[in-house]
Design a protein that fits this description.
CATH class: Alpha Beta
Number of strands: 10
CATH superfamily: Aldolase class I
Oligomer: single chain
Distance between the termini: 98 Å
Number of helices: 12
Radius of gyration: 25 Å
Bound molecules: iron/sulfur cluster
Order of helices and strands: HHHEHEHEHEHEHEHHEEHEHE
């Protein structure tokens, strides 16, 4: 009888103990799974579940028949091989892909930003640093499956994001490739690295797909935009609306607090040009008056008079220390609190 009682008592304590261990394991497991909340989950996964990526990609593809993907609104049938201002047909062309360490620190980290450089560009800047790719057609014909594999390769080698450089005119291809890459495990944030010359109507297709917008805000005046980005006399008006839409979609740029790597948000670039031909004062004023004061603004100093810039005396030189410093001062006077100053390495 004593032995039976002892067995019952010991069993009770053993079971209780065991259940406490189990509870602890459960609670640890719960803790682990709640940590998943700190791991980056790209926005596009939700759209993938609803088959929305393919749907949007196909809708954009239809628009190639009367192309209106950018504010140039050429109306050409790119599927039939016609070319508009950007000179792109429906055949995807890519110049290069790989880890890039020259982008903003928050995009580069240790693994680099996974850049994919698309051939051609709708904006046609006479001073474009990548003019061979953007305007001289350097690049190779590429299948959509290959683009998906490039994204997966960049993820595999440790890049922190997929950085789509000048993507506007190949949006249908990009979204259809994304749809395929997600099936094979793509989970990196997409960086939409653009000239800022974008239609709001087209940007809405990217709502829930792009996590990081990286637009240039090139000019604060339309006349000079039209002169130096051939014919884009509506650039300032268009870019304002585009940047407001980007901000609506992703908000202020927020790096991961633990890693410092950017995961979501708007990162504006502004290239300071000689003789204030970029109308920097107006760009800075507009940002300060229309976006939160902690909007990320990278004030860039590396302007160089390449390509056709020599044909325009007012932009045929690098900027001076005073010119760059003046723009930094304007940003401070307007109480912008999240500016990146590149330093004066490039200025004369
Ligand atoms: S993407 Fe090219 S063809 Fe289409 S509207 Fe823009 S410039 Fe014209």
């Amino acid at each position: 009888m004593f032995a039976i009682t002892l067995y019952i008592v010991l069993s009770f304590f053993f079971n209780k103990c065991n259940s406490q261990i189990k509870d602890k394991k459960m609670s640890d497991k719960h803790k682990d799974s709640s940590n998943v909340g700190n791991i980056f989950v790209p926005s596009y996964l939700k759209l993938k579940e609803k088959n929305e990526l393919k749907k949007r990609g196909e809708e954009l593809w239809e628009r190639l028949k009367h192309c209106d993907l950018c504010p140039r609104n050429c109306g050409v049938n790119r599927i039939a091989g016609e070319k508009g201002t950007c000179k792109a047909t429906a055949t995807l062309q890519i110049a290069s892909y790989g880890p890039h360490y020259g982008e903003e620190d928050e995009l580069v980290g240790n693994g680099g930003s996974g850049t994919i450089f698309f051939t051609n560009c709708p904006l046609l800047c006479v001073f474009c640093i990548n003019y061979d790719i953007s305007q001289l057609g350097v690049g190779k014909n590429t299948e959509i499956d290959d683009l998906a594999n490039m994204m997966l390769y960049l993820q595999k080698i440790g890049c922190h994001n997929i950085n789509l450089v000048t993507p506007t005119h190949y949006l249908p291809h990009i979204i259809l490739a994304l749809d395929k890459a997600v099936d094979k495990g793509l989970r990196l944030p997409l960086v939409y690295n653009t000239s800022g010359y974008e239609k709001v109507e087209i940007l809405k297709y990217l709502d829930g797909i792009v996590d990081i917008y990286l637009p240039d805000f090139k000019y604060g005046c339309n006349d000079l935009a039209g002169k130096f980005s051939i014919g884009a006399y509506d650039y300032f008006d268009v870019a304002q609306k585009a940047i407001l839409e980007m901000h609506r979609q992703v908000g202020v740029a927020k790096p991961n607090p633990k890693t410092g790597i950017m995961e979501r948000g708007l990162m504006i670039r502004h290239l300071v040009m000689p003789n204030n031909t970029s109308c920097s004062d107006k760009v800075i004023k507009w940002i300060a008056e229309n976006l939160p004061k902690n909007t990320y603004v990278n004030i860039m100093s590396q302007y160089s008079p390449v390509f056709k810039a020599k044909n325009y005396p007012e932009i045929n030189r690098r900027i001076t220390y005073n010119e760059y410093h003046q723009v930094i001062e304007w940003a401070k006077q307007h109480n912008l609190t999240n500016i990146r100053v590149q330093g004066y390495y490039f200025v004369d």
